[in-house]
Amino acid sequence: MLPVIALVGRPNVGKSTLFNYLTRSREALVADFPGLTRDRQYGRLKHGNRACLIVDTGGIADEAEGIESLSKKQVDIALGEADVIFFMVDAREGLSVSDKTIAETLRKLAKPVVLVMNKVDGLDTSSATADFHSLALGEPVACSAAHGRGIPELLEKAYSVLPSDQDIVEDNQGTIGIAIVGRPNVGKSTLVNRLLGEERVIVYDQPGTTRDSIYIPFERNGRKFTLVDTAGMRRRSRVSETIEKFSIIKSLQAIEKSHVVIYLIDASEGITDQDAHLLGLVLEAGRALIIGLNKWDGLSSDQKTLIQRQLDVKLSFLEFAEKHPISALHGSGVGKLFDVVHTLYDSAMVNMSTPILTRILKEATDAHQPPLVGNRRIKLKYAHQGGRNPPVVIIHGVQTDALPISYKRFLTNYFRTKLHLSGTPIRLEFKSPINPFQGQKNKLSDRQLEKRKRLVKHYKSKK
Fold first, then answer.
1. For the domain bounded by 4-161, which CATH number is listed?
2. Strand partners of residue 85
3. Class of domain 351-463
4. Range 34-65 burial, b when 16+ CB lie within 10 A, else e
């Protein structure tokens, strides 16, 4: 197990900025906005041949009510996991009553605490440090998370109190990335907690509770997964806050990084046009797809029939996707999702040999020949694999740019059926040979014509 460093402090002291700097990433949303971070966000810190986990937490407010109280619980969990605590304070604002209250709580934990004095740019460090000595947490480490000032000294102090040396071991081979996406307040965080079997992320009856994309690595039956809880995505016309725009970008990035996407739909509200639009983005990314129909157990038989009809009409372009009725709150149907995820991952990452693909192509063209173009039939010669996640098949032939969409759709369905691909789109790319002498004849004729004109002009001048 890697040692854990937890970043704690009151809101807007720079915890997420330091998290991004230490992990060399942009996983945590950063803005001049107190209370932005709510859930625990984990990242890996690499320094030399050593490594540890960094946990970004929400700011500890003076009066934690409602969703702030749930965020406070996430902080308490991070403190329980931590081997070392980075207590961050704001050097510009100076010592506050909240800092004293938090320091008193941390002293009771009997864990190593490093006092991190952030935002020291342009300040006299010695005078700024004087106030924070009263917290009785040792010598403060002055730094600037935004510009990297003081970070080497901070890491040196942290590693001096970490429990043991840990060599960096990178082993992401075979890790299955699962992104949970959907509109706001459809039960994504509830499903994440149900899949993990613990209250890992905040669940609150309010749209927009999740703002960041929370990456959660875990193991199940000896298999590694990374589960991503994403922010709800609304129609662009309704997105006004800058924070929400960045949250949507994070969600789209999570889709790109994943192998399997579980798109959650609130079955009690039906399938909306926004669902169809967002599922189009998932299709464009080419990810294996599970459509989870949440709150299914609370529907009447008529409502279930209506949902099935909407699936056929509004989501007809996703005939390959797996559809599963579930209840994230009560757990019905959720246990089967992991079995489906394994199947979809194997389909998305399948290895396809050239002889097998070429044989399937020949069977398809024998069953249904390509159409004629200019009294000449389009020829498809052979196929080979061009990529994975999603599977890509490259088909070589003559006049492939003239293939109609209907025939391309036929080939796509034929390859998916013969390769037994489940829940994943398959992309076909067509290539025709390039004639290196194409256009040479016309250019040669032009030169000959120009030469002839010069000769005619020459003979006329002689006469």
1. 3.40.50.300
2. 6, 113
3. alpha beta
4. eebbbbbbbbbbeeeebbbbbbbbbbbbeeee
Report yes or no: 177 and 228 within 8 Å, Cβ to Cβ: yes
Return residue ranges of the chain for CATH 3.30.300.20. 351-463
Give the residue range(s) of CATH 3.40.50.300 domains in the chain: 4-161, 176-348
Fold designation for 176-348: Rossmann fold (3.40.50)
SS3 209: coil
pLDDT by 10s per residue, the chain, length 463: 578 888 988 888 888 888 888 888 776 655 555 556 666 777 888 777 777 888 888 777 766 555 566 677 778 878 887 888 899 998 888 888 888 888 888 888 888 888 999 888 877 777 778 888 888 888 888 888 888 888 888 888 888 877 665 544 445 567 899 998 888 888 888 888 888 887 776 554 555 455 567 788 888 888 888 888 887 776 554 444 555 555 677 778 788 888 999 999 988 888 888 888 888 888 888 899 999 998 888 888 898 899 999 888 888 888 889 999 998 888 888 888 888 999 999 999 999 999 999 999 999 999 999 988 878 888 999 999 999 989 999 999 988 888 999 999 999 999 999 999 989 999 999 988 875 555 555 555 667 777 777 877 777 776 5
Residue 220 DSSP label = E
CA torsion angle 141 144 150 156 (round to 10)? 70
* Cα distances (Å, whole numbers) of residue 231 to 69, 234, 243, 337, 430: 20, 10, 11, 21, 37
Cβ of 32: how many Cβ atoms within 10 Å?
A: 6
pTM of the entire predicted model? 0.68
- How many CB atoms neighbour CB 263 within 10 A? 25
Please write down the HEC assignment for all residues of 53-116. EEEECCCCCCCCCCHHHHHHHHHHHHHHHCCEEEEEEECCCCCCHHHHHHHHHHHHCCCCEEEE
